Amino acid sequence: MVFNSYTFIVFFAIVLGLHNLPLAWRTKKINLLLASYLFYALWNPPFILLLWLSTVVDFYMARLIGGEERPLRRKLLLTVSLVLNLGMLSYFKYGGFLLENFTALLSAMGIAFQAAQPDIILPVGISFYTFVTLSYTLDVYRRKFAPEPSFLNFALFVTFFPHLVAGPIVRPEDLIPQFETPRRATAQQLSWGLFLLSLGLFMKVTVADGLLADTADLIFSLPFPVQTLDAWMGVLAFSSQIFCDFAGYSTCAIGVSLCLGFVLPDNFRYPYAAMGFQDFWRRWHITLSTWLRDYLYIPLGGNRKGPVRTYVNLMVTMLIGGLWHGASWTFVVWGALHGLFLCLERLIRQGLANRQAAIPMADGAVMSRASVVPASLAAPLARFGLVLLTLFLVNITWVFFRAPTFDGAMLLLLSMFGVISNGPPMLTNTALLTVGVVTVGLVGCHWLMRNTSVAEQAKRLPWWVLSAGWAGLSLLVVLSQKSSSSFIYFQF
Amino acid sequence: MNTPNYTKSAWLTLGLVLAFVAGWELYWRNQHLPIGYNDDESMWASKRRQVYESSPTRPVLIGSSRIKFDLDQGSWARITGEKPIQLSMDGTSPRPVLTDLGNDPNFKGTVIIDVTEMLFFSPDGSFPEKEAIKRVKAYPTWSLSQQASFQINRLLESGLLFLDDRNLALGPLLNLLPLPARPGTWGGPQFPREFFVVDQDRQSIMTPAFVADTALQNKVKGVWLDVGAHSPPNAVTGPALQAILDATKRSVEQIRARGGQVLFLRTPSDGIMRAAENKLYPREQYWDRLLAYTQTPGIYFEDYPALTRFSCPEWSHLTPADAVQFTEDLIPIVARKTGWPLGEPLSALLGQPIPTCR
């Protein structure tokens, strides 16, 4: 089920109604759990079995790990959980990719091998709920989180429908404690949750699907080069589309959850106003980047094992982050580019910090080596320039993320940089205007909002002004009428 | 800083949205547009699911827009007792749907294939073929959730005019912005909103306003000229044509091998459109060759005086009144040509010869 569907409206109304009935807390949680299974099963019922398997195995493995003191046995139990979760993910998500590459490798070695094409359907949200359950088992293993005694609470933590299929990727401490005491949204929370749901739907239905999808789809599907303007507008359209699609989903999820009285973590903080890639990953898909940091980058050694290992760890983390998004080499390149930019940025920052550390300041103080923004970049214009430079590089990486093949990506890049300049114009003035207005609006909004939040801004507005804006968003959703199209991140 | 009162905002928002939606709906009702349904993926999928109930009296119709206008499903049902299953898609080639039905081991029914040459013979990888493939591929993943949404959507669409996705959604409204055309680009066909509506059986019906207004008809003629100007200048020939014929033959034979039946149909066209079709797709090289190569019966409208007396107001499709007459005239011809038992009242007609032009 998707948030932008009539089915969801009916489903949510029923869930909300049941949750506000004078029932026992345990009964309400059972209602939420059953509703979450229904929410998932309405896509493809058999895949609910995978969800159950993951839930049951991780619940019991974590209990066994929690009660076990012998390090070897603890490791063994953790391995069982990892093998099951990563095994399922590998089979369903990477089975075809691995086979394809294995065949290509044999072929390159001169061995003729033709494997039958596996007909594997990717269960929706498997990448998300696998990371959710993994974080639980890993946290219990690391004694960061005590095993949850209630199977109901744990099952609801894994399955809670707002975050189940596309995040935010919740941690045990984010959600499990919230299931322990009765919760019901106040009228204020319910209203704010509905506002967030409207905002998320506006981002997804109106902006991503209604205004940008056709342009991005057209430009990325062409097998021939286009004019430079068209190439850039196609990439900018995708850049805004993927943000509005994914951040829209997260906003809906947070809003829906709040309507039920639960708080989910933020997943986006105006990433297109990021100054540098480090800042970008603190603002884009925050729950994934922190997951990768805590469960991959830091266990690999993080920045504690010298500069070379730090760069290697960064690259490994980003390569795996790229592969998490999809079983294709284009995603790996996307991750590699992000890794490369992160490494370069780290090098530059350290170089600048070293230089500044040696320069005594006017008052005799020495600028801290830990300073993030050099003095030359303190001016707003320079900062905005840095934002634009980051956005420019992020857009280059999006080409690999969205292009179906390397050839397609290269063709588009060559068109973008005028290397191939004889392509035809493809986009109408309406499409150019739409993408231009959305891009400028989005970047401007991110710049203005980069150090604040919607909630903080809403508090400053008179209630009727907020209402006028809210009504405007809702009306544009109604006018867009693009119901039921899937969110891009469901495929990941 | 204010103490936020989100609850008050929520109620005002609800009031504003309801007021706007009511006003918007009333505005469009005052424009006298008839209610229609969105001919989207779910609508198509709901029909695709019915193909296993197909029979000669309930054939599966595949093709482009012409058969959606020209074959009146109500008339067909009145005469044969059952409604056809409409799987044709506007502006697309029927070949991907034919391939899908051919590959479906459970499909043993009857197929009528509407041949609009410039779409049927569009090469692999062309826009008309890719658009049809999208829907065919989406069908197996038509989820229970989408099915439920479709039912709710249908209910809403039956009563609310403003839910017309083709004409009144944000995208089509933005296309009305008075922006100059960018040289060398084309935004696709922009039909006047009065052109047609689609009913819940996927029947396309010209609106009374369109039938009565030659200025609107001329606008659509202009759209066809525009489409022609942006289409490949030459028809597919040589190996590409042979590949199309091979693929068609394979699918037809797959269906027939399971006991199914196939009939090709060429519906009327007119004016400059007809002249261009004759020039680009000479009958002997395309239609006749298709029938001979696939060993399949076909009905070409020009072969039957009863089917030749219609004119298309915008060169390509029949008016609702003509569609009724065309269907009534077509059924005995189909019955005669194929021997399909198309309803009791026809049995008497089967003994009589059908006049032909050739």
Give a summary of the structure in a few sentences.
The complex is a heterodimer of chains A (492) and B (358). Chain A has 492 residues and is mostly helical.
What would you note in describing this structure?
The complex is a heterodimer of chains A (492) and B (358). Chain A is 68% helix and 0% strand. By secondary structure, chain A is an all-alpha fold. Chain A has 2 domains: 21-183, no CATH class; 189-356 and 373-491, no CATH class. The longest helix of chain A is centred in the N-terminal third of the chain and has 38 residues, at 71-108. Chain A starts with 5 loop residues before the first helix and ends in a 12-residue tail after the last helix. Chain B has 358 residues and is of the alpha/beta class. Chain B has one domain (9-169, 190-350). Chain B has 18 helices and 7 strands. Chain B has helices spanning 6-30, 41-48, 65-70, 73-80, 95-103, 117-120, 127-138, 144-157, 165-168, 170-174, 208-212, 214-229, 238-257, 271-280, 287-294, 305-308, 320-338, 347-350; strands at 60-62, 85-86, 110-114, 196-198, 204-206, 261-266, 298-300. In chain B, the strands form 2 sheets. In chain B, strands 2-1-3-6-7 form a 5-stranded parallel beta sheet, sandwiched between helices. The longest helix of chain B is centred in the first third of the chain and has 25 residues, at 6-30. The N and C termini of chain B lie far apart (86 Å). At the A-B interface, helix 1, helix 9, helix 17, helix 18 and helix 19 of A face helix 1, helix 8 and helix 10 of B.
